[in-house]
Amino acid sequence: MSADFKALLRTLGEAGLEFIVVGGVAAGIHGAARATFDLDVVYRRSSDNIERLVLALTPYHPYLRGAPPGLPFRWDAATVQRGLNFTLTTDLGALDLLGEITGGGGYDALLPSTEVVHAFGLACRLLNLDQLIAVKRAAGRPKDFEAIAELEIIHNRRKT
Amino acid sequence: MTERSSIDDIIDVYKRDVDVSLIEANLKRSVEERLEMLMQFQAFIEGLRQAKRDSPA
């Protein structure tokens, strides 16, 4: 199914969740013209925030993306506390919840390298362009080379 | 000055194929419009995938 980025961002934002948009949606907000099929966010790993995350997503039936149906997966605070990164399907589309990202660390480490944009009546925090390029470079995945090329072109255009 | 790596050279190769006109068009859009475009393209691709699944082998 297609991901409803608007509904996902609204769900997380209205729950008061502390999160940073990263990945392809962040690239798209910065101006990249590339398709992406999931929303990647880095969430703060405090107990309060994890509780908010669990409550916000429960109505949308999160489940492990790509896992066979029927596994005894429970979407609760204990599961999130004991894990770190979760690639999920939800009724609103694919959502990657990341406790940490390569080359950037967790929410608190990334926070100084973020900016806030406003969309659909929400203030949405995302990784700034410099840091987005840095983490994609750090990940070192060949599939990201084209995205990095595009982001660096956008970066150079902003400088001129 | 930071020394260039082979990854920099590879990314430069990819830059040759980036359609800058698409970026320019996107930069003229608002944040909401960019998000709407992402969702529209995603839905378009999903429609194509569904059509392929539904078509006789």
Using the CA coordinates, give the radius of gyration of chain B. Answer: 18 Å
Note the main sheet of chain A: 5 strands, mixed
Helix vs. strand class of chain A: alpha+beta
**What's the pLDDT, averaged over the residues of chain B?**
90
Low-confidence stretches of chain B: none
The gross shape of chain B turns out to be flat
What letter string, H or E per element, gives the SSE order of chain B? HHH
Query: How many DSSP E strands of chain B?
Result: 0
Portion of residues in beta strands of chain A equals 15-25%
- Strand order across the largest sheet of chain A: 1-2-5-4-3
Overall number of structural domains of chain B: 1
Name of the level-1 CATH class of chain A: Alpha Beta
Distance between the termini of chain B: 57 Å
Helix content of chain A: 40-55%
Distance between the termini of chain A: 40 Å
**Strand portion of chain B:** under 5%
The shape of chain A is globular
The assigned structural class of chain B equals mainly alpha
Oligomer: heterodimer
Largest sheet of chain B: none
Question: Care to describe what's here?
Answer:
The complex is a heterodimer of chains A (160) and B (57). In chain A, a hairpin with a 4-residue loop joins strand 4 and strand 5. Chain A is built from 7 helices and 7 strands, in the order H-E-H-E-H-E-H-E-E-H-E-E-H-H. Chain A has a single domain, classed as Beta Polymerase, domain 2. Chain A has a 5-stranded mixed β-sheet with strand order 1-2-5-4-3. A two-stranded antiparallel ribbon of chain A has the order 6-7. Chain A has 160 residues and is α+β, with helices and mostly antiparallel strands. Chain A starts with a helix and ends with a helix. The radius of gyration of chain A is 15 Å and the shape is globular. Chain B has one domain. Chain B has 3 helices and no strands. Chain B has 57 residues and is mainly alpha-helical. The longest helix of chain B is centred in the C-terminal third of the chain and has 24 residues. The mean pLDDT of chain B is 90. In chain B, 74% of the residues lie in helices and 0% in strands. At the A-B interface, helix 2, strand 6 and helix 7 of A face helix 1, helix 2 and helix 3 of B.
